[in-house]
Amino acid sequence: MKKALIKDSIKEIKNTYKRFLSLLLMAFLGVGFFAGIRATSPDMVNTIDTYYKQQKMYDIQVLSTLGLTEDDINSIKQIDGVDIVEGTYETDGIVELENKEIITKVLCVDELNQPLLVEGELPQNSNECVVEENFLTQNNKAIGDTITVEIENTQNDEGEAIEYLYNKELKIVGNVKSPLYISNERGSSSLGDGKIDYFIYISKDNIQAKDTYTNIYVTLKNAEKYETASSKYEDCVEEVKNKIEDIKEERETARHDELVQKATDKLNDAEAEFNEKKQEADEQIAEAQKKIDDGKAEIESSEAEIKENEEKADSEFANAEKQIASAKQEIQANEKTLQTKEQEANSKISELETQKQSLAGQRDSLNSQLTTLQNTYNSIVSRLQNEELDDQTRKELEQQKQQLESQIQTLNTTIASLTSGITQIEQGINQANTEIAQAKNQLQTAKNQLSSQERKLNQQKSSTYAQLEDAKEQVEQAKVELQQGEQELETQKQDVEQQLQDAEKELIDARQEISEIENPEWYILDRYANSGYASFTQDKESVYNIGQVFPIVFFLVAVLISLTSMTRMVEEQRTQIGTLKALGYNKIQIAGKYMLYSSLACIIGGLLGMAVGFILIPSLIWHMYEVMYQVPEFIVSFNWEYGGAGLILISVCIIGATVYSCIKELRQQPATLMRPKAPKIGKRVLLERVNFIWKRLSFSQKVTIRNIFRYKKRFMMTIIGIFGCTSLILAGFGLKDSIGVLMPNQYEKIFKYDMQINLKEGLNETQKNELINELNQKDEIEETIETTMLTRTAINGENEEDVQIIVPKDQNELEKMISLIDINTEEKIELQKGQIVITDKLAELIGAKQGDTITLKNGEDEKQIVISNITENYVYHYAYMTSETYEELYGKPYETNAILTRNVDMDEEQEENLATEIMNQNEVSSITRNSDVEEVMNTTMESLNYVVVVLIVSAGLLAFAVLYNLSNVNISERIRELATIKVLGFYDKEVYTYVTRETILLTLIGIALGLVGGYFLNYFIIGTCEIEMLRFSKIIHPMSYLYAILITVVFTVIVNIFTYFALKKIDMIESLKSVE
Amino acid sequence: MSYIEFKNVCKQYTMGEITINALNNTNFEIEKGELVVIVGPSGAGKTTALNILGGMDSATSGKVIVDGKDVTRLKNKQLIQYRREDIGFVFQFYNLVQNLTAKENVELATQICKDSLDVEEVLEKVGLKDRMKNFPSQLSGGEQQRVAIARAIAKNPKLLLCDEPTGALDYKTGKQILKLLQDTSRKENMTVIIITHNSAIAPMAHKVIHFKNGTVQKVEYNEKPLPIEEIEW
């Protein structure tokens, strides 16, 4: 290109900067939107992928109904392609706070699925834990606080209850995010009100129940290389999943055998113990029996002895008594003899007494003689003693004395003989007396002896008999005791028997239990089983789909705008083109200027668009999803692939439009080009031929109509622009409407019940009735109905979908809780015998219609049933049949497993209390509250407001870009005409209406078409965003139409205000001066 | 006092740092019903004077009085009203609206005026009775200019201002147009001002104003203006 031309081009840009900017803006918007929206989905994936890799998120998860063992881990480790295999413990716990119970998922900090630390530190010790941020903020807790986690005891393989944790009191040491919980969904629990509120992480050291793992998490060697959710990643996961699937059965059996083995061992032990005990008991009983028998024998021998002794005593005593009696007779005889002897003795004694007394008398006289002699003697002696006594006297005296002495002596001798006579007599008396006394004594002694003998005998007798009596009594007592013993033994025997029987029964039960140990089932899940990931990928997919369509609108507009702009520019420069051509420049050189012009606009605008689009749009879109996900930081990246594609596309559009406009002019001869271009030829429009209408139109109306048909390009552009604007807005509001009515429709119109109370298995009728009565007595509950719910896979041909079947006990009661409305007739549906009613989305997904036969599959079990009606429904898939149909179909009696209740109006807290109250009933296994589901959904819905805002903003940009450009082109192209009417004396307002009347009419057409287009766009967006579980009603509220119209009108008015001032500024003289 | 008075009118354009005096103390007078021809070389200020007179431009200083009304003092809206009711313009390049038929082009003007003339009559007067329903592109240059004149006179203006009305036309056609203007002036007693650089047609006017360097160089009076048919050039 020649230097002069480059210079000219640059000058051109300077001079027509407005046009350049408008091209640039189109490139900016086009590339920005295209690249931005397209990059959002990959950015979302990248964000989650980075997060997952950083936290070592699992690729495959294995769950089992009966726990997982070290052996399971080892077998998975053997599989090709696995990297880390890790067993972990997960359970639900209850945290008691001041006034409420919180249900938490309790996870372990481990190598995989690491929590991302936001603040504080990870739990190191067994008494520490980390929680999620919401836990802290919503419950007014802080790091450093202590919480108590209650977890139900678990059973080990031996069936013993084990405390789950060592420490229940846990200190919060940090707050974290978890890759396992990227959405707000925390899952359900069998505890409390059935809904998990938060997760907490604890140290593995705190787990006491380490017998089996609850989960095995696996990462794959190759998965690291690929981005999550990419097809390579999924293939890689699928491959290993299949391999794990291959060992599944073997491991299930192994686990089953292990459990059976353990239980059998235990049973054998118990049996051995039982036998031992039984033997012991038998021995004990035998011993006791022997004792009793011995006792009996003893008693018998004692009795015989007693009898013998009695007889012996009887005869002995009789003998003795006889002897005593004879002795008594002898004594009596002796007594008589003694009495006569005594009498004889007594007479002899008295004789002797008399002799004695005479003798005594003699003696006494002698004694008195003696005494006189003595006295004389004594007086002689005493005189003799007197010394003064003469000898004569003395001799006399002496003689006297001697005489006396001989007299005394003689006397004494006489006395002595007398005395000895007396003594003899006395001796005789004494002898007699003694003899008598002796005899008496002898007799008395004999008597005494006898009586003592008698007494002794009597004593002996009584004692002997007493002894015998005692012995008898003892025997009697022994007998009683023995009887008691016997009875006791009997009861003991019975007791033991009972105990043994019980023990035996237990053993039998245990044996039964062993035979009933189910085969465990393994669930091999990938990341899609994680609800957060599943919804994330779904959302990412929706964003991707939207990214496929939205930019098209902008590209279309970009083409139109650049086409008009460049055509205008080329036309304006006809003369110059002609001149250059005349000067000998070739077509390419001439066109080069315009190509350069538009290329520069494309490149600069495109690069700016990329710069802004790659950051702003993904962030903006992510912002809508941010409330729903807890992901560390959204990663926006510069995606050359999309950026380049966008730039190329927009360049093709804009440069293509430029080339198109150039070619038209370049074909002409220089001479023609240098002459002013013949203005567009006025033409009659078709309408003019319809005279009666045309005649009725006012002058200005005619002008307007003719103008509209004159500028077809502009006509198209306006209509498309406005169409796009209105339809985007309508789609935005429509989206809100469609999704907004979803919840009320489902939970007010279709489901009138408030709670679904799931019953535990194996309840009997009485228990159920009791519960129902109790429920019915609660003030908060208005009505209840009994149903049975079962989950089946509905199959029609190739298609299958899970469905929840609701079977009311009494079909007439169903309508109190659930409205069944036929999708076609909009009439109430009666359940037909032997047929099923399915919900509309299910019918759509499996491609079934009224009258078709579908298969209900559950494992091996497959049943065929005819669809009687298709019913309106919005959330999840359901099917309904009568209890008779159920019984007929499954060949077993109907059994209630869920109760639906309709409650009085109450606030959330009241409802929560009610739910907790009901949960406390033993019969209840879980509760689903519709208000909960509704609330979760509503939060999601709120983010839709952002979608609406984004749509309105893009619509606004579109409207401005189109209308502003249009108005500029319109003014510059028709400037002479406008100057002319100004000269003619049109007021500013009249000039404005003269120009904008067409715009307004086109806008109206655009709006009208936009409303139709919006309807379909809404349809498309909903189709794109729609989740299989939900049926979005394709409803657009009348107000939304109004909003769409009003907002478009507002945008148009704003642009028209600009136009008004632009028109006012038109310089008549300059414009009319000469041909350009 | 004359019907139209130009008193000490100056007009300056500022182009960047340069100030151009388009009109420099211009004075002239025109009486009602006069046919005036303004002649002078390019850039002498003829068109500027006409634009100011026609209310399309404003004077920097001085007074322009038309039928007792001081045009220089009019506000924007009054100026538009002045253009709409008092002025008829005819341009060199006709400036017809391409998308409107001849009749419609005239109607475009008449629909905004109070005392407008009958459109068909006017078109008949300019000799286009049969071409009323034609679009400008279907008409010859002369015919187009006739439509332009019809559009101007249909408003029944006080002044008919013609800027080089024959500039784009051949001799014969130009003559016809000039005749039409002369006839109009004569029959309707309309004040007609024609700008031309062809001083040969000057004899047809009551008054000839010569412009040079932004001011009136001289004013000639023809006691007896010649009918256009008698003028040859």
Describe this structure in words.
Chain A is an alpha+beta fold and 1076 residues long. Among the domains of chain A are: 90-209, no CATH class; 288-516, no CATH class; 711-748 and 932-1076, no CATH class; 761-922, no CATH class. Chain A contains 27 helices and 22 strands. In chain A, strands 3-4-11-6-10-7 form a six-stranded mixed β-barrel. Chain A has a six-stranded mixed β-barrel with strand order 15-16-20-17-19-18. Chain A has a four-stranded antiparallel β-sheet with strand order 2-12-1-13, covered by helices on one side. Chain B is of the alpha/beta class and 233 residues long. Chain B has one domain (4-95, 152-230): Rossmann fold. In chain B, 29% of the residues lie in helices and 28% in strands. A six-stranded mixed β-sheet of chain B has the order 6-7-8-3-9-10, sandwiched between helices. In chain B, strands 2-1-4-5 form a four-stranded antiparallel β-sheet, covered by helices on one side. In chain B, helix 4 (119-125) crosses helix 5 (141-154) and helix 5 (141-154) runs parallel beside helix 6 (171-188). The model of chain B has no long low-confidence stretch (mean pLDDT 85). Classes of the chains: A alpha+beta (1076), B alpha/beta (233). The A-B interface holds A 678-683, 699-700, 702-703, 706-707, 710, 976-977, 979-988, 990, 1068-1069, 1072, 1074-1075 and B 51, 54, 56-57, 77, 80-85, 87, 89, 91, 93, 95-101, 104, 107-109, 111-113, 135-137, 151, 155.
Topology:
The complex is a heterodimer of chains A (1076) and B (233).
Chain A: H1 3-15, H2 17-55, E1 60-68, H3 70-77, E2 82-88, E3 91-97, E4 100-108, E5 116-120, E6 128-132, H4 133-139, E7 146-150, E8 154-155, E9 161-162, E10 169-177, E11 198-202, E12 213-220, H5 231-384, H6 391-516, E13 522-526, H7 531-572, H8 574-583, H9 587-626, H10 640-666, H11 670-674, H12 686-689, H13 691-696, H14 699-710, H15 712-740, H16 742-750, E14 755-759, H17 765-777, E15 781-796, E16 799-808, H18 814-817, E17 835-839, H19 840-846, E18 853-858, E19 861-871, E20 878-880, H20 883-890, E21 898-903, H21 908-919, E22 924-929, H22 930-942, H23 944-973, H24 975-983, H25 988-1025, H26 1038-1064, H27 1068-1073
Helix pairs in contact in A: 1-2, 1-9, 2-7, 2-9, 2-10, 3-5, 5-6, 7-9, 7-10, 7-15, 7-23, 9-10, 9-23, 14-25, 15-23, 15-25, 15-26, 23-26, 25-26
Chain B: E1 4-15, E2 18-30, E3 35-39, H1 46-53, E4 61-66, E5 69-70, H2 76-86, E6 87-90, H3 102-110, H4 119-125, H5 141-154, E7 159-163, H6 171-188, E8 191-196, E9 207-212, E10 215-221
Parallel strand pairs in B: 3-8, 3-9, 6-7, 7-8
Antiparallel strand pairs in B: 1-2, 1-4, 4-5, 9-10
Helix pairs in contact in B: 3-5, 4-5, 5-6
